[in-house]
Design goal:
- The chain is an all-alpha fold.
- The chain is 68% helix and 0% strand.
- The protein is built from twelve helices and no strands.
- It is globular and about 55 Å long.
- The chain starts with a helix and ends in an 8-residue tail after the last helix.
Length: 214
């Protein structure tokens, strides 16, 4: 059995020795299997038991570094779905955005429940645009009607990622079969943002040339 503290320290030592941290730098780390085993083993042992804050921080750090494959967070959801909830609670306090958005995605794959929904609503108010985007998408996939208003708010929010946020908003409204979709599709098709315009055109074509979702 690999030790969480040792494997996290091993990664940090390796990362500290890198000249640059750009792109998908974490992917070239060769000891991921050992770190995966240490994290998943630790999470499995915590079932129903309190865990030290420092250890939870190491798990969230590992999830954040695994942002490319998202293997850890996916396996935690499959093997220990309850852990996804308490890890998200901790991530709202001490986790990186790279961990929070992954948790938001996986919470949307749990059966709908008040606890997961409440956490997603908290993540939908995150300071990070991508965390908000993924949380709202998960709320929409769960059929939570609050996602409609949240998506429309993101449409209006000034942000450097606004084009991508607006594409996500359209997809959420489409998922919810929202009557607001038609107006925003028209806005996107007449706007100056090229990727958004292409995306809106594709959505309209997929829906048979209409704004409504059948």
């Amino acid at each position: 059995m690999f030790d969480l503290k040792s494997e996290t320290g091993r990664f940090r030592h390796w990362a500290d020795g890198l000249a640059m941290h750009d792109g998908q730098w974490e992917c070239v780390y060769e000891a991921w299997p050992a770190w995966y085993e240490a994290v998943l083993g630790w999470v499995g042992e915590r079932a129903g038991r309190a865990a030290p804050e420092a250890d939870i921080g190491q798990v969230l750090y590992a999830i954040a570094r695994d942002r490319d494959t998202q293997y850890l967070v996916r396996e935690i959801r499959k093997r220990h779905p309850d852990a996804l909830v308490w890890l998200t609670r901790a991530a709202l306090v001490q986790g990186e955005a790279e961990a929070r958005w992954q948790l938001a995605v996986e919470l949307g794959r749990l059966p709908r429940g008040d606890e997961a929904e409440g956490l997603l609503l908290a993540l939908a108010d995150d300071d990070d645009e991508y965390v908000r985007r993924r949380a709202i998408r998960s709320l929409a996939s769960l059929g939570v009607q609050a996602a409609e208003a949240l998506a429309c708010c993101e449409w209006q929010r000034a942000d450097e990622n606004q084009e991508w946020a607006r594409m996500s908003a359209l997809e959420c409204l489409r998922e919810l079969k929202s009557p607001r979709l038609a107006a925003l599709l028209a806005d996107a098709l007449q706007g100056s943002l090229p990727h958004l315009r292409q995306y809106a055109q594709r959505l309209r074509e997929q829906d048979g040339g209409t704004a409504e979702v059948g």
